[in-house]
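Take a protein:
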Amino acid sequence: MRENLTCGFIGLGLIGGSIAKALRQFHPDYKLIGYDIQRENTDLAVEEGILNISLSEIDASFHDCDYIFLCAPVSFNDENLIKLKQFLSPDCLLTDVGSVKTDIHSHIESLGLNAQFIGGHPMAGSERTGYINSKAILIENAYYILTPTREVAEEKITEYKELAASLGAIPLILSCDLHDYVTAAVSHLPHVIAASLVNLVRDKDSGNGIMKLIAAGGFKDITRIASSSPSMWQQICLTNTENISALLDDYIASLIEIRSQIEQHRDLSVYHFFDDARSYRDSFMDASSGPIKRSFTVNIEIADEPGALASIATILALNQISIKNIGIVHNREQQDGVLQIEFYEEDSIRAAGEILEHKGYVVHQGP
């Protein structure tokens, strides 16, 4: 892999910022430049030592780039590419970070840039958005899908794979069509389903909000991703429409089938419906990569008395263990422990468990 590369960023939000931070961490000698419509993002990145240069527009500063990452919202890709094309070096490799690939491939082809483009999609994300929430660790151990054009040179594909791997990601090469079908099934459709379930409970809840009040662990687990950015998922649905629509048809058909089996009290069929799902789900790798992230949580038995929660928070803080979220579990239908703590990293679960158990607390691993 080449040294002393120059990498440009157009858009510096959660994903672009995380890639830039990973590049700075693993390749401190790289030159990083960036433009964002919100100049404060790139200015902050310069202050933090992530970017070398913050740009106020897309200009000739991008001519010397070896890589340019297109990280703005997908609706801006066409306009940004038109501005960028006049400044591109023929040796520069263009890439993006979008969740849908056929759309950007179409823009690239219309501009005659196929020989310089490899689509990129780090399968990582967060319910929080923007550069301020970006971090290098976000793409660590996450699949980084690459969708090269037919015209791009093989050595460019190899070099990009090596670059992604050097950041701790796991590169995986797919065609843009296959990428969009696969992600429609495992990422896009689940977001549609989660949002529809939340909207169903909202619409069917009683006037005093009893459904919302007692929403159980299972409901919260499968609808957590409904808290994601509505504008981002609007764009994904409107750019990967055909795949999402086809899979929605299949999913609706499966719901109609299980509804019929339940109505007819076909006990064996209903059993196999749940057992087949359980068996297949249990075969999944227990990994944190992907846009639907694992939740690193522990549940703790505590007494209902003043200062109990503060004591635990203090113990963890004194041991330099950062807490992402903390709260009381009022409905314990699927979990033990009245206090639930969520961490940023998996290692924190083990460390927190050991420390708290040593202090006499009963700790249960979260889902």
User: Anything to note?
Assistant: Residues 301 and 361 are 7 Å apart (CA to CA). Residues 331-336 have pLDDT under 50 and may be disordered. The longest strand covers residues 143-148. The two ends are 39 Å apart (CA to CA).
